[in-house]
């Protein structure tokens, strides 16, 4: 998978609070008879896979199954009558990037409303974990398709990324308020996962420098890379306005900003073999977006675990 390292694997962790360290058995008991669903992009899928790995060690041998049907992946923990699922929806709203494999598109076209095509898979989940950020950050306008017509090429208006992002998050909040019972379900939103594609941001002036070859985290506690603060503000403002269903924000951005050393770099599974030119200059094809597993997404799941079990202490993280 594109989120795992094939060589030079390292184990990274963040110590949160000793008494609240991730406990796979406790987590599985909490999920007994329930359905947990991750919704978002490949970064959210990395967190999903990380969670499966963290939980798998506590499951009886032969008691699990895994299947993928189109955009939905389903892991079954049979001994606990639980499912942990991932649904591919990188922009949350219906878009031209919804194909689980063929989705490398430069132009973003999303449907303004409704969101029925995706949200029908979200109904009934006991724990929902959303993310959406990277796919908005193309630098181009986002094209918004109005109406419910199946034709994704007409009646289009353009919006800036922040405006379009706000529109879609409001749709998600409205859907939550109308379809989720806060007495039985929990909802979370994971903030932006940083990239480390430009070494100049942390003071490396070498031409083309990026995450490739990095072996240590950034030591400057005040470091902030290219992650859009404006998009994070939109996230906070919209989710805070949820009238009926509380949305717990899992803020992974700052802690991940330091981890220039934890990306898959050139060790991920490649869609195509590197060319001779790329092999001669590894930083030219280094993946500075996705993370090694074990790695940073494990720490994200530590935060998610905290918020699941200690919601009264949300403001501490």
From TrEMBL:
GO molecular-function terms, A-Z: O-acetyltransferase activity
The protein's name in its UniProt record: Trichome birefringence-like C-terminal domain-containing protein
Gene Ontology cellular-component annotations: Golgi apparatus
Family classification: Belongs to the PC-esterase family. TBL subfamily.
Taxonomic superkingdom: Eukaryota
Organism: Triticum turgidum subsp. durum
Domain Trichome birefringence-like C-terminal: 21-305
Matching Pfam families: PC-Esterase
Signal peptide: none
């Amino acid at each position: 998978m594109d989120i795992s390292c094939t060589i030079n694997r390292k184990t990274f962790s963040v110590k949160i609070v000793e008494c609240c360290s991730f406990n796979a058995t406790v987590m599985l008991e909490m999920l007994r008879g329930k359905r947990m669903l991750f919704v978002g992009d490949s970064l959210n899928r990395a967190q999903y896979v990380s969670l499966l790995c963290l939980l798998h060690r506590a499951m009886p041998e032969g008691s699990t199954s895994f299947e993928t049907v189109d955009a939905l992946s389903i892991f079954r923990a049979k001994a606990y009558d639980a499912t942990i699922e991932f649904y591919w929806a990188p922009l949350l709203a219906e878009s031209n990037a919804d194909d689980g494999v063929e989705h490398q598109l430069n132009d973003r076209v999303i449907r303004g409303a409704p969101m029925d095509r995706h949200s029908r898979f979200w109904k009934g989940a006991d724990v929902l974990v959303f993310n959406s950020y990277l796919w908005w950050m193309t630098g181009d306008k986002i094209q918004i398709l109005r109406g419910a017509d199946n034709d994704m090429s007409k009646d289009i208006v353009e919006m800036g990324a922040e405006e379009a992002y706000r529109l879609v998050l409001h749709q998600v909040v409205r859907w939550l308020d109308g379809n989720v019972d806060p007495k039985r379900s929990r909802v979370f939103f994971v903030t932006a996962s940083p990239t480390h594609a430009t070494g100049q941001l942390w003071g490396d002036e070498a031409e083309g420098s990026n995450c490739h070859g990095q072996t240590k985290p950034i030591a400057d506690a005040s470091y902030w890379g290219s992650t859009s603060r404006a998009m994070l503000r939109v996230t906070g403002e919209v989710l805070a306005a949820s009238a009926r269903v509380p949305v717990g924000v899992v803020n992974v951005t700052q802690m991940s900003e330091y981890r220039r050393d934890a990306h898959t770099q050139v060790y991920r599974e490649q869609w195509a073999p590197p060319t001779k030119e790329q092999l001669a200059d590894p930083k030219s094809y280094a993946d500075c977006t996705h993370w090694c597993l074990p790695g940073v997404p494990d720490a994200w799941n530590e935060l998610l675990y905290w918020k699941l079990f200690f919601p009264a202490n949300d403001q501490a993280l």
